[in-house]
UniProtKB/TrEMBL annotation, chain A:
Pfam families xref list: CENP-S (PF15630)
Keyword Protein transport: no
Protein name: Centromere protein S
Organism expressing this protein natively: Serinus canaria
First and last residue of the signal peptide: none
Family under the similarity heading: Belongs to the TAF9 family. CENP-S/MHF1 subfamily.
Region (Disordered): 96-138
Length: 138, 81
């Protein structure tokens, strides 16, 4: 996928990527519901999705700017999903899953680094750090 | 994510990032990693909604979805988003 369309200009490659993914997702529905999507309908869904991204992008940018940020966060994405309560619920849930998997990864890293520093438990390590701080202030 | 016939079954994080950046007005605007992943989910929902709605709009004796069905469901789809 990386090398596909590498000779295209800026807008074409994302468009092709969207078309590919839309094709995949439609294929899932095809198998699930035992139907067939015409090539035109897949192309139409793909075009609609691509255009909807423009609306999403502009909204996201405005939400971030409103919050005085230049980086779009998950809070901005949740605002995009506000119009349908079931959609909002779904996106909020996904956001929480992301947050908790991030926490898990941080925990793993912290445990790995404390293990590397000589098998200290989190409690001991914190106490040791506090001691160091006190001695620095003295 | 299920793998069917070698398809990824979702939008790639970097595709999402590029898609959004195409339309930002400010060159400084970025999207953080979690937001990229969440947008990939949102887009997946969008496409599935479009596909399923089109499928539901078709007459029962047909098993082919065409642009006609899509046109019927488009207004409501866009309102929901």
């Amino acid at each position: 996928m990386e090398t596909e369309g590498s000779h295209f200009t800026g807008a074409e490659e994302p468009r092709a990527a969207v078309h590919y993914t839309v094709g995949c997702l439609c294929q899932e529905v095809e198998e699930d519901k035992d139907v067939q999507f015409s090539k035109q309908s897949i192309a139409a869904i793909s075009e609609i999705t691509f255009r909807q991204c423009e609306i999403f992008a502009k909204d996201l940018e405005m939400f971030a700017r409103h919050a005085k940020r230049t980086t779009v966060t998950t809070e901005d994405v949740k605002l995009l999903a506000r119009r349908s309560s079931s959609l909002l619920k779904y996106i909020t849930q996904k956001s929480e899953e992301l947050a908790s998997s991030n926490m898990e990864q941080k925990e793993k890293k912290r445990k790995k680094s404390s293990a590397a520093k000589g098998e200290r438990t989190p409690g001991e390590q914190e106490a040791a750090m506090t001691e160091n701080e006190d001695s620095n202030m003295a | 994510m299920e793998e069917r016939g070698g398809c990824a079954g979702g939008f790639r994080k970097d595709t999402v990032d590029r898609l959004l950046r195409l339309h930002f007005r400010d060159g400084r605007t970025r999207v953080n990693a979690d937001a990229q992943l969440l947008m990939a989910e949102l887009l997946k929902v969008f496409v599935r909604a479009a596909a399923r709605a089109a499928r539901q709009a078709q007459a029962e004796d047909l098993n082919k979805v065409d642009t006609e069905q899509l046109e019927k469901v488009l207004p409501q789809l866009l309102l929901d988003f």
